[in-house]
């Protein structure tokens, strides 16, 4: 159980308890269903990680390796990538 799932259980549990105390059974059951759905959707165990492709580039001035979103080369300060 991760931190987000614990938070959903706490908030959902408090809202469900308040609904039961106020004898609002329909809203308590709807909140219970929504809490279980949120708890299930926040489970990360069965999900595969995203494959993020990071393309590297070389500085045109000194040849250092960098990333295309960097404004300047960390080695020489040039702003031209190839």
Architecture overview:
This protein has 82 residues and is mainly α. The chain has a domain at 3-41. 44% of the residues lie in helices and 5% in strands. The chain has a two-stranded antiparallel sheet. The mean pLDDT is 90.
Total of DSSP H or I helical runs spanning 4+ residues: 2
Order of helices and strands: HHEE
- What coarse outline follows from CA principal-axis ratios? rod-shaped
Main-sheet strand order equals 1-2
Mean pLDDT, to the nearest integer, reads: 90
- Quaternary structure of the protein: single chain
Strand content: under 5%
- Helicity range: 40-55%
- Could you give a short account of the major beta sheet? 2 strands, antiparallel
Distance linking N and C termini: 45 Å
Radius of gyration: 25 Å
Protein structure class: mainly alpha
* Secondary structure tally: strands: 2
Low-confidence stretches: none
Give a short overview:
The protein is mainly α. The protein has a domain at 3-41.
Spell out the key features of this protein.
two-stranded antiparallel ribbon; about 80 residues; mainly alpha; rod-shaped
Secondary-structure map with pairings?
Blueprint: H1 3-21, H2 25-41, E1 57-58, E2 65-66
Antiparallel strand pairs: 1-2
Helix pairs in contact: 1-2
């Amino acid at each position: 159980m991760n931190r987000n799932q614990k938070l959903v259980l706490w908030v959902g549990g408090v809202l469900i308890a308040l609904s039961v105390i106020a004898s609002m059974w329909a809203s308590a059951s709807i909140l219970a269903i929504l809490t279980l759905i949120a708890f299930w959707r926040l489970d990360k165990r069965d999900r595969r990680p995203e494959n993020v492709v990071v393309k590297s580039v070389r500085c045109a001035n000194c040849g250092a390796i960098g990333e295309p979103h960097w404004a300047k080369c960390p080695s020489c300060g040039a702003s031209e990538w190839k």
